[in-house]
Specification:
With 104 residues, the protein is mainly alpha-helical. It contains three helices and two strands. Helix content is 60%, strand content 8%. The chain has a two-stranded antiparallel sheet with strand order 1-2. Strand 1 and strand 2 form a beta hairpin. It is elongated and about 55 Å long. The protein starts with 13 loop residues before the first helix and ends in a 9-residue tail after the last helix.
Length: 104
């Protein structure tokens, strides 16, 4: 099944589009790993600091998710746009708080 690029910044290049789909499937898997790590992380109660959470496993699981996001952002979306659309994309990311959430 072929898919047609849609959205504000469509990726028309077939190779970039395929890479983006692959990264999105990987990102979904990485996110499930982060959720599992967060849900099963051990915690303890410290008299001085309150709740102490062991964040090492979450930090280890989030690294591949951030790499996938960065690849989607830079290699798939940004670099596949025309110069005008690339400037528009970067301007939108800089002005929209949701675009500034993960700049891995």
């Amino acid at each position: 099944m072929t898919s047609q690029p849609t959205g504000l910044f469509p990726v028309a290049d077939a190779e970039c589009h395929a890479k983006g789909r692959q990264k999105m499937h990987g990102l979904a898997l990485y996110i499930s790993h982060v959720w599992e790590a967060a849900a099963t992380t051990s915690t303890s109660l410290c008299r001085v600091h309150g709740m102490d959470v062991d964040t090492e496993r979450v930090a280890l699981e989030i690294a591949p998710a951030l790499a996938a996001i960065r690849t989607l952002d830079l290699e798939v979306i940004c670099n596949s746009q025309s110069l005008v659309d690339r400037d528009r994309y970067q301007s939108l990311l800089a002005s929209d708080p949701q675009g500034q959430v993960v700049r891995a």
